[in-house]
From TrEMBL:
GO biological process, alphabetically ordered: biotin biosynthetic process
Recorded name of the encoding gene: bioB
Pfam families recorded: BATS, Radical_SAM
Assembly behavior: Homodimer.
Protein name per Swiss-Prot or TrEMBL: Biotin synthase
Its job: Catalyzes the conversion of dethiobiotin (DTB) to biotin by the insertion of a sulfur atom into dethiobiotin via a radical-based mechanism.
Species classification: Bacteria, Pseudomonadati, Planctomycetota, Planctomycetia, Pirellulales
C-alpha cells in the first residue's frame, strides 16, 4: 500500500504565503508595520526558505544580483573615551588590541590600494573616538581627494559624533558617505552605553543628511536587545532615510563585557537580515561583522536578503579570506559591482 505525503500549499494562504504577501506589500509601496516586522523575526524555522524567497524578490527588484564590496581601514585604534559595552576599543574594555593614533598618509593610501585590488567599491576610514579632533579632520580632508583621484573609490568616513560644520567639511573634501551606527533600539540604548545617548547618534545622522552626504547606519545583533528593539531600530533607519544599513552580529571578545545570547542562531541571523530587507526594501543591506561566526555554513543564504558585504578584516577582528567571498558570490550566480553604475538608492 503506497503512502501519500501531504505537502504544504503554495497558493499564498498556507506555509510561506504570509511572507510573499509581505513582499507584495512593500513592492506596492506600503511599508511593513512594526507588528509585521516582529512577525518576521519569529518566523518558524520550517518557513525560513520561504521567508528568504520573499526577501530575495524585494532585493532582486531593487538591486538585481549585484553585490557591493566594502573594505574597512581601522585608521585609529583604541584610545576611545566612550564606554560602549560591546566594543573592544572602549575605555572599559580589557581586550588586548592594537592602540594607535590616526594612521599616516602612506598607510591610508595603501589601504585604498588594497580596497581597489579586492574589487571593493567603497573604502571605509574608521577612527575610534567620541568625535574627530582637528588633527583627525585635517588628515581625512587631505587624504580623501588623493584617494579618489588615484583609485576612484567611493569614500565612507566613520569618525564618531559630528557637528554640522564637521559634516559640511567632510562633504567639501569629497567624502561620499558617513557611517554612524544607531547600534540598537532607543529603549535599549542606555543598557549598552552611558557616555552618549541614542539622540546624540540621531543628531549626527541628521547633520550628515543636511550636509548632503549619504547616510550609513545600522546596528549590532546579539547585545541583549528584544525583537522590538531590533524592529524599532530598523524603522528609525527607514524614517531617517539612511542609504546603507550594515547589520553586525556581536563577536564575543575576551575582555569585553557583552556575551551573545543563545537565541542568536544562524537561522535567527537570516531572519534578521530578511526583516531589514522587508522593512527597508530599497536600501543597501550589508552583512557586516560577525557573519563568519554566526551564519557559518549558511553565509551564502544571507545574500538573498542583503546586497553587500565587507571583504577582509573588521576593526579588531579577522574576517573571511577574500577568495572565499569571491567564490561564494560566484557560486550564487551573483556579480560584484565596482563602478558608479551600482544600484544605490537616493533618499
Amino acid at each position: 500500500m503506497s503512502e501519500t505525503l501531504d505537502c504544504p500549499s503554495t497558493n499564498g494562504t498556507i506555509e510561506g504565503g504570509r511572507w510573499q504577501s509581505f513582499a507584495d506589500q512593500v513592492l506596492a509601496g506600503n511599508p511593513l508595520t512594526a507588528e509585521q516586522a516582529a512577525e518576521v523575526l519569529t518566523c518558524p524555522d520550517s518557513e525560513l526558505l520561504s521567508l528568504l524567497d520573499a526577501a530575495y524578490r524585494v532585493r532582486r527588484h531593487y538591486f538585481g544580483n549585484q553585490v557591493q564590496l566594502y573594505l574597512l581601514m581601522n585608521a585609529k585604534s583604541g584610545l576611545c573615551p566612550e564606554d560602549c559595552s560591546y566594543c573592544s576599543q572602549s575605555k572599559e574594555s580589557e581586550a588586548e588590541i592594537p592602540k594607535y593614533n590616526i594612521l599616516n598618509r602612506e598607510k591610508l593610501l595603501d589601504g585604498a590600494r588594497v580596497a581597489k585590488e579586492r574589487d571593493a567599491r567603497t573604502y571605509c576610514i574608521v577612527i575610534s573616538a567620541r568625535g574627530p579632533n582637528e588633527r583627525e579632520m585635517k588628515a581625512v580632508e587631505t587624504i580623501v581627494p588623493e584617494i579618489k583621484e588615484k583609485y576612484g573609490l567611493h569614500i565612507c568616513a566613520c569618525l564618531g559624533l559630528l557637528t554640522d560644520e564637521q559634516a559640511q567639511r567632510l562633504k567639501a573634501c569629497g567624502v561620499d558617505r558617513v557611517n554612524h551606527n544607531l547600534n540598537t533600539g532607543e529603549e535599549h540604548y542606555d543598557k549598552i552605553c552611558t557616555t552618549h545617548t541614542f539622540a546624540d547618534r540621531v543628531d549626527t545622522l541628521k547633520a550628515v543628511r543636511e550636509a548632503g552626504l549619504e547616510m550609513c547606519s545600522g546596528g549590532i545583533v546579539g547585545m541583549g536587545e528584544s525583537n522590538e528593539d531590533l524592529v524599532g531600530m530598523a524603522i528609525e533607519l527607514r524614517e531617517l532615510g539612511v542609504h546603507s544599513i550594515p547589520v553586525n552580529f556581536l563577536i564575543p571578545i575576551e575582555g569585553v563585557e557583552l556575551e551573545v545570547p543563545e537565541h542568536v542562531t544562524p537561522q535567527y541571523c537570516l531572519k534578521t537580515l530578511a526583516m531589514f530587507r522587508l522593512v527597508c526594501p530599497d536600501r543597501e543591506i550589508r552583512i557586516a561583522g560577525g557573519r563568519e561566526l554566526h551564519l557559518r555554513s549558511l553565509q551564502p543564504l544571507g545574500l538573498y536578503a542583503a546586497n553587500s558585504i565587507f571583504v577582509g578584516d573588521y576593526l579588531t577582528t579577522k574576517g573571511q579570506a577574500p577568495d572565499a567571498d569571491y567564490a561564494m558570490i560566484k557560486d550564487l550566480g551573483f556579480e560584484i559591482v565596482t563602478s558608479s553604475e551600482a544600484s544605490i538608492c537616493s533618499h
